[in-house]
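User: I'm writing a tutorial on reading structure tokens. Could you give me a worked example: one chain, its sequence, then its tokens, then a sentence or two explaining what the tokens reveal?
Assistant: Sure. Here is the example chain.
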Amino acid sequence: MLSRRLFSGCALCSALGGVLGLTATSAQAQPAPAAGGLTRTLVRRQDVAGTNFETIQMLVEIPANGEAAPHTHPGHEATYVIEGEGTLMVAGQPPRQLKPGDSFLVPTGVVHSAKNGPRPQKLFATFVVEKGKPLASPA
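And here are its predicted structure tokens:
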């Protein structure tokens, strides 16, 4: 009975992920290395209709004791912490400790950085950024 429920739950999540576009194709799923040992795996990229913006969703992985150097984005970042803990530094705000289940928003062009704890960290990030610009720029 339990295995049937577990299977049904997995099947439902898989089906919903496909319907909602949360599954990655093999071409999209290739991790993109970034500074500080981060990897970004593209989950979905879609134009925002009638604008010069696009939405980019990524799985971001930061190694144990890794860092994301100060940087900016050409649009908003909304991120959810899946696992691991670390510290987020956003210009004009006090440092914020992050743990699984936390989320944060970073407005367009605001300098921010992160320092990871002793375990790897996984984040699900959604960026709404101007098309044709680099996703991140050093600050």
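What the tokens reveal: The chain has one helix and eleven strands. The mean pLDDT is 82.
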